[in-house]
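ok trying this again, last paste got cut off
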Amino acid sequence: MTTIIIIAAVVIIALILISMYNNLVKLRNNRENAFANIDVQLKQRYDLVPQLVATVKGYATHERELLEKVTAARSACMNATTINDRVQADNALASALSGLRVAVEAYPDLKANQNFLQLQNELSDIENKLASVRRFFNSATKELNNAVQSFPSNIIAGMFGFKTEPMFEIPASDRAAHEKAPEIKF
């Protein structure tokens, strides 16, 4: 009878440990899937940016430096290899695109062009989708980090090399600019 109880206890503990491990794997895979969703949206953005840049170049050749900055930032995004490098490069591209939108506001002829308006609307849609998938990525990261740091799953996480992962955040150097309300002029 005692042997049966010991065997049952060992089996229950083993099942609990397996369940914790499987949950950590599921959470890690969920985070990786969330980043893959960001990649899909970034790919759409990368494909759209050259079209937008070509249209803008046709109307605002004097904005060459700004357009080259957007192109360089896009290239850096495409060449980034790690999640953290991609986050950093994506933030640089978002900043460059923000500067492009501000410059466009100063040129009514550019805004009136139908092709540009269509591209601008598509870019806005992609940016909204990117914001959504970034929130999902951060939610998946939070779930993984909670499991990695919570007892008793933190023991399993430590044994199998699971660690807390960084969120998709605005770099501290850009935070002040993003916190400032945009200036609207008519």
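PB: full thing came through this time. The radius of gyration is 23 Å.
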